[in-house]
Automatic annotation (TrEMBL):
It is found in: Nucleus. Belongs to the NSE1 family. Its main location: nucleus. It is an enzyme of class 2 (transferase). Transmembrane segments: none annotated. Gene3D superfamilies: 3.90.1150.220, Winged helix-like DNA-binding domain superfamily/Winged helix DNA-binding domain, Zinc/RING finger domain, C3HC4 (zinc finger). This is Non-structural maintenance of chromosomes element 1 homolog. InterPro entries: Nse1, Nse1_RING_C4HC3-type, WH-like_DNA-bd_sf, Znf_RING, Znf_RING/FYVE/PHD. It comes from Extremus antarcticus. It catalyses: S-ubiquitinyl-[E2 ubiquitin-conjugating enzyme]-L-cysteine + [acceptor protein]-L-lysine = [E2 ubiquitin-conjugating enzyme]-L-cysteine + N(6)-ubiquitinyl-[acceptor protein]-L-lysine. Residues 226-270 form the RING-type domain.
Amino acid sequence: MDEDVGSYDHTHRAFLQALLARQVITFEEAKPLLAAIQTANTPDRPTLPEDVSHEDFDNYIYTLNSAISPFDFEIRSTLHQTTKQKIYALVNTTSDALTQMATIHTADEIAFVKRVLDSMFETNNTQRAEVMAIDSFQALNLAKDPNRRESGSTQAQQNAGLTKTEAQKMLHSMVEEGWFELSGRGFYSLTPRALLELRGWLMDTYNDQAAEDDDEEEQYEKIKFCQACKEIVTLGQRCPKTECQARLHGHCVRNMFRAQGGREECPVCKTAWVDAPPVGEGAAKNARRSTNGTGGGGRRRTSGMNVDGAADESSDASEGA
Ligand SMILES: [Zn+2]
Ligand SMILES: [Zn+2]
């Protein structure tokens, strides 16, 4: 492949169309695609997938990014937090994912997704347990807005929420459209693409709000970034010192230690990075265990502290009235 770097031609257009159709791509997935596109362009000089180098791929991304930036699109990359694969995604740089979803989903469906996100990043994301995911049982309990039921406002009638079947369908759509992924243990979490698209929105929505909360969790930011790669951590490790905000992806821990000259300690508070508690669905198990084991942290509110919080909350709502 010896095309001029930077000149946008129909091979780029073909690659962009492929990307539009699939939303995310890895280098390995791009190789056969680019080979086919190149071969179609110059049939007398067929290109094999092995012939496509990472540099060729990077050149395509570079040229495409120059071409699509006036339309507020950008191809961004991130590492998948579980598979560690580098994922490239076509990201809309001006509108967030919720705005994009609104073009194909109803207001009730979007409101449901918002409740699911609130659960992921508020209810299931506390100083004690940073689950940042939601199991399907808890998600389906959010089909109807628990706060709307007793509010009695005119909005309450208008915004009826979803039935459980509709909610189940919507969760399925979120997976199909590439926003949510479902783990083997039945937890929904955000995909790398969703994290790329929602980065700004998540910070605006959950970090600003945290500052207005009560003193106890002042300074506590809901959305935290990896000390090594600076991407959002929804799956990884947290500093063994509970109050410390330092987080690392599992695959970034070694890089961090190396950068510190081999010192296996927290880059922020210098606590030894030993038995670092998990961030992600692994924290849900811990939350349950510690609740059962210690009889539930003293005077602290237990509602919303773990993934079983949904049940607590609905009972709170009826008792509190
Ligand atoms: Zn990282
Ligand atoms: Zn620390």
